[in-house]
Amino acid sequence: MRFRNAISTRRTADRLVSHGKDIPNAELLFSALLDIQMSVKLFYISEENIDEAIKSMPNNLPVVPSTMRIYQVVTLTPGQIIYRDVSCLCSTRQTMECQCYNSKTFTFEVQVTASTPEGKSQNSSEIPWQNSDIIGQWCCVKYDDAIYPGLIQDLNETHVSVKCMHRIGVNRFFWPRQDDVLWYLHEDVIRMIPPPTSVTSRHMEIDRDIWSKISDL
């Protein structure tokens, strides 16, 4: 698949040049290919982006075995990659987390903060998704541009199952009669929170300082 896409992209570029299009660098090639709306998904990574990424990398990263033979890399968890010598887009198209073509897993040493001091912001990348201890804890999720508190029920490498409260006003929530449990992408979880507090016999609110911070986002 990747090889066919590369050939298709190269032939399209050759056709543009043969029709008089001047393409002296990668950025102009990227723009030209976007203009013709190719079916292949393209990304442009500038030299500055690469330099910034290299500067942010630790100096003591372990070496991934057989680096020169790697053809496909998938990452679902911070500090961990799945790699193989042949690209595969089989039944697990959304995550590509299959075991085809002798897939291998490599884990880097990554320090993840398990908790966030009260009053400081936290984003999805800082939540220890690899730690099952967060099951049963409270979090805030984003759904249709609204914020809902809920209890974490289960999790995997890319998603988290949350039983959410329903919303009745600004920072006012209640438990529905029927459990509202959905799987959310990790990035849809805004942050972990302490349990909401009661404001009436049925309604609850998120800590007001936390609500002020996350609602401003």
Automatic annotation (TrEMBL):
It comes from the Eukaryota. This is Uncharacterized protein.
